[in-house]
Amino acid sequence: MTIAFIHEEIPTEQVEQREKVLSSLTDAVRDLVDATIRSTVADDELDAVRAEVEALAARLRAAQLPGPAGVRYNSEGRSWNWGNAVVGRGNAVAPPVDITHDEFGSAYAELTLGAAYEGPPGMVHGGVSALLLDQIMGETASGFKRLTMTGTLTLRYRRPLPLGPVRLEAQIDRESGRKITVEARIGVPGEDAAVEATGLFLIPSWAPLDESAASWSRSAEG
Ligand SMILES: CCCCCCCCCCCCCCCC(=O)SCCNC(=O)CCNC(=O)[C@H](O)C(C)(C)COP(=O)(O)OP(=O)(O)OC[C@H]1O[C@@H](n2cnc3c(N)ncnc32)[C@H](O)[C@@H]1OP(=O)(O)O
């Protein structure tokens, strides 16, 4: 099965304007999620809020895509993936992460994980650590110059990771043909890693080894 990217000829300026407005709605929805989890208001107030939230969802549903957002690109090389589960600018379920890459095959990100990402009491859910690690490792393997997919991800959970500020780091360890091995970690900034990861990322046999000459490039694909 091939992975299809959608060519949509929207000028970059308009994409960026839309992304800005959408991101700010997403931040507000994330805040709503946190407020919902932690709210202690009375039941009838919860009920009143539910009615208002349903009305807001109906307004957004007035014009909808027929399915998921996909990954789109224009002929200026701008791409956008607003539904992505980790870096989608329109996805309030995605943790609020911005990944920074350097030209030497390394990447890092710092973010704060709140109540929506809890697993053990007060701690980050192990699946959320895996989600974040998979994305930063996949982006590192790809370097936004080739399509890579997770083949095998091995995680070692060394110590519980408290909710709050976290730092992720990833770098390419080695590569051979279509196989790229990436090492990564997540932990409290300045402390030993809570979770260490090794991943084998594969350039699928149906994809080119190098797509940097393709008509689209990075925003934060996944
Ligand atoms: C400008 C352009 C930019 C474009 C791009 C931007 C992207 C920017 C960032 C992306 C960031 C994403 C971050 C999230 C990443 C996900 O979440 S990806 C979703 C999760 N992963 C999947 O769904 C993958 C599902 N699996 C598959 O589709 C296929 O099995 C694969 C992985 C593509 C491999 O299929 P294939 O290419 O047909 O390879 P195949 O011939 O079976 O095997 C080739 C070799 O790899 C080995 N191999 C195959 N599968 C595995 C495996 N799972 N584990 C270990 N070894 C394996 C084989 O043993 C074989 O080895 P050799 O015999 O050659 O030594």
Automatic annotation (TrEMBL):
It is a peripheral membrane protein. Pfam families: 4HBT. Coiled coil: none annotated. One of its GO terms (molecular function) is hydrolase activity. The keyword Magnesium does not apply. Its main location: membrane. It catalyses: (5Z,8Z,11Z,14Z)-eicosatetraenoyl-CoA + H2O = (5Z,8Z,11Z,14Z)-eicosatetraenoate + CoA + H(+); hexadecanoyl-CoA + H2O = hexadecanoate + CoA + H(+); decanoyl-CoA + H2O = decanoate + CoA + H(+); dodecanoyl-CoA + H2O = dodecanoate + CoA + H(+). Gene3D superfamilies: Hotdog Thioesterase. This is Acyl-coenzyme A thioesterase THEM4. It comes from Nocardioides ginsengisoli.
